[in-house]
Amino acid sequence: MDFGWSQEETMWRKAVHDFAQKKIAPRVREIDEQGIPQDILDGMTEMGLWAPTVSEKYGGSGLNVTMATIAAEELGRADISLALPVMYLVQASWGHVFERYASEELKAEILPAVTSGKLFLGIASTEPGGGSDIEGVTRCAGAKQPDGSWKLNGEKLYISGIKESLVMGSAYMTLVRTDPTAAHRGFTFFSVDLKDNPNVSTTLIHNWGRTGISTGGFTMEDMPLSDRYRIGDEGKGFYMAMEGYTYARALIGATCCGAAETALRMGVDYIKQRKSFGKPLAAYQGINFPAAERYVDIESARLLTYKAAWLADQYYGGKSKLKQKDLALWGAMAKLRAPIMAFDTFNEVANWLGAMGYSKEYPIEMGIRGVRSYSIGAEGGMNIMRMIIARELIGNDYTNPRN
Ligand SMILES: Cc1cc2nc3c(=O)[nH]c(=O)nc-3n(C[C@H](O)[C@H](O)[C@H](O)COP(=O)(O)OP(=O)(O)OC[C@H]3O[C@@H](n4cnc5c(N)ncnc54)[C@H](O)[C@@H]3O)c2cc1C
Q1: Whose CA is nearest to atom 42 of ligand 1?
Q2: pLDDT 10s digits, 46-79
């Protein structure tokens, strides 16, 4: 067992840390109020942080899961609102899935444009009927045409990056039912570009958190699509969706750890200098005991997160007999703990700051608003994490909600 970092990992962390602290951290309020500025996005591309898990063959950085997780933590440390970390992690996790399953022809068309920051690669699985029960509620339908092409119909909702993709163009990994008779084996992924698409209309949703990246929806009406834009085999979409969400959950864990540590350090600086009843706040156990608890909570979530990442690297490196369901378990454990840990940390620090904690002078409120997106639903709600964990612990026969 080895809990150390390799030289490569240490150097990568430092490079991302330095970039993020210099270019991103001072501008988080601007990100929250106006969206991620183009020069920051350009900087991300130069750093190789735009879909960095895509291999060098397609212009990516070829990061493994641990390296991608390190970058996620550093981006979370810099942007406590979590908007930019989400922009990063969506493309890192789904870029990985895209490369694993798309045809050579499609990868050559899409991925170099993504890794050079010209195209947004997103995920569109959720619909107005819900996101947790993909099998039960997905209504978007793909009808195969006699010439082998497709016609897509239906609506996707609560999708990250809609506004950005209307500007940049997009490769949305869009989950569609292509066989109504085949339960969860009846789904297929397609790559959909929303920009200037005459068969697509879009909407925007006004979120109250992580507002630096947009959320919205799109409707496809008799949208013709060549079979060239199918990602992976017909009927395999559900499995690919689970794989992508599992990947994203490790990265989410890391963004929470980074952001929570920023808040904790900020709070510690404050309680050391703020005096009450003649002493620094930090001298009171009512303050420093919770600080100690939050410190352990962050480290606990970090251990879960990096174990999830490490296991994924064993799996993708072919070095073990692990299965996707093992990765799903650890991804779910990280996702169950880290956002709650970060929320509790922000909340605690807000208490220490007193009235200042309720003002926009400190970024804590951005963290509270941002991290709730993770526990409310993004990449799966908390009960869905509990469901995955209970399934592994107790068995599918007992825990499957369809039984
Ligand atoms: C900011 C934001 C960005 C998002 N970005 C994207 C995106 O880019 N792409 C995308 O496809 N989706 C995206 N989503 C949607 C996200 O994937 C869904 O919110 C999530 O899957 C949950 O679906 P839902 O919101 O429809 O809740 P529902 O599925 O309606 O569930 C509602 C609540 O009930 C719980 N629940 C459901 N079933 C059970 C059960 N059997 N037992 C106990 N509890 C249960 C859920 O955990 C949740 O708390 C985003 C969401 C947010 C908030």
Answers
A1: 383
A2: 999 999 999 999 999 999 999 999 999 999 999 9
